[in-house]
Each structure stands twice: as structure tokens, then as C-alpha cells.
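Researcher: Here's the sequence for the chain we discussed earlier.
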Amino acid sequence: MTPPQESIRTLLTRCWVLNRARRYPELVEQLRAVPEAQLDAEPALGFMLADVLRRLGEGQTALDVLQRIGPVLDRRGNDRLHRRRLNLLGTLHFEQGRTAEAAAVWERQREDATTASDEEFVARANNNLGILFTLAANWEEAVCAYNRAVTSYQRLGYSRGLAQSHHNLAMTYREMGFAVEAGRHFADAVALAAADSPDEVARSEQERALLHLFEGDVELAEASAQRSLDRYRALGDPTGEGEVTRVLALVALALGRLDSARAHLDKATELADQVDAVLLGAELLEARAVLERLCGRDEEAHRAEERAEAVFRRLHAAPWGRQIRERTRQVGAVARDALSRGDGEAPS
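Model: Thanks. This is the structure I predict for it:
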């Protein structure tokens, strides 16, 4: 039996407080205890459950919850919760490797948000679609999409969204080879996120570590990645922890610390499997291929590259896969130099 409306409001208020405080384990414990009938009666509760499940690495369960509350929200019409659901639904599709489905959902989100004059969710859709342009190595379109998001977020004065857009611009400029522009946008992202978005700070520190690594400052890369890892662990974010552990593996490779690199890759792979992070898994395979070649195991390296290629093709992200391979091989060349100088540590 559906509880009285006042009871639902009380539960919503309690859950919102926990969510704002980022007390995610407590929040998910509260929401898991809610009967499905009550979640259906107030889909805001179902959405909150899906959101926190994704943060805690339970992406498939989160997707199941979003699919169940979809018909309820469709009947309610094009309201804000409907658009929030589309945003999260596309993100889950993307994180689980279904890029075509993600694109379709985000296009619908942009269309519905435009119809509703909801500039925030137009901006979010542009940010998300920009990521798909990035995977296609369509840098110019990606920059345009992110800049459109920046314009919208500036009008709204929404610092978290601005931080995300500057972060995405920084990554894109980094891959285009414009290190100064990338560094400026990473700094903007961290400054905008510092007050109330520690997850975005962690993400920018993680990706800025790669900028430092590609620019040859391995020590600064390691320090930035370690700060990011500490933040992700404090947040209880296994997806972020997996992403930054890959970066630490690349840092270890660049220093010629092959045993350490392997340990990081094994941990990152475990985390990627745990949260079904398919794209991360393919990126890890490319790093593993470089490691195996450095260890003289060319056949294992070739198999890892073949598996990575297959995943990138399936994700419609073959251009991004080629970019990752090129970047990872650059790190491998640095590792070979370190080992030849005797600076690294040969595998035990």
C-alpha cells in the first residue's frame, strides 16, 4: 500500500539531506529499504536511488531502476525530473559501452530541454554529446559543443556545470596538442569545482596528471594523480579510482617501474570489471600491451591490442582507441629510455 504523501515528503527530505552531504552509503541504505511501490509513487526517490547506485559502482542496477520509473515519468510529461532521468540514463549507457544508445538519449534530452527552455539541461546534453565527438576524435566539433555548454552555464551561473565543461575542453585541447590552453582550462575547472564538487576536482586532477605526463613532468603527474586517488577513495567512487589507477600505471611505466605498473593495471582492471567500465577496460588493455612488450612478451602484447581494438570498434570509438594507443606507446618509449639508463626497476 502506498504510504501517505506526508510520509513520502519526509523520506524525500531525509534523502536529500544525505545526498547533499554526500553520505552515499547511508543514502543507498535508506533507499534500498523503500518498497518498489513507493518508488513508483514518487519517482524522485527512484531517480535518487539510481544516481547513488551509479556513484557506488552499481551501474546495471541503477539502469534497471531508471528503466522501471521511465513510464511513470513519460506519463507526467516533459518535466525536470524527466530530463534528469534522460541525462543519467545516457550516462549509464555510455559508461557501459552503448554509445549509440547514449547518443540517442542525449539528443532527446537536448530536444526536450530546448522545448522546455531548460538551459541547464541543454548545456548538459551539449557537454555529453561533446564527449561522443571526442571519442570520434572530432576535436573541432567537440570544442564547439563544450563551448556551447560553457555559454549556457555562464548565463545560469552554475559553477559545477562550468567546471565540467572546462574540464572537457582541457582534455580536448590536451589531445589536440595545445598544452597551454589545456592547462588553463584544467585550472579553471579546479577553481570552479573547489567549493562544492570534490568529484570534479578529482577528475580534473586525474586528467591534468596525464597532461603533465605527456609534457614530460613525471613527478608532477604522479603527485596530481595521487591527490586525485585520495579524493576518489574519500568519496567511495570505484569508477574514478579505476580511472586514476590507470594514470598511476602509466606514470609507473614512464619511470620504468614495471612491477608497480603491473600492480596498478591489475587493480584498475579489477575496479573496471567491478563497475562494468568498458571504455576504461579497453584503455587498460592498451597500457598492458605496452607493459608486455617492455617485458619481452610480444605475443601477449599483440593479444591485448587486438582485444582493445575490438572493444573500441564496438563502442564506435575507434579514433579514440588510436589516440590512446599512440599516447600509451609514447609513454612506453619514455619507459624504454629509463630502463636503458638504468633508472627503472626491471620486473622481478
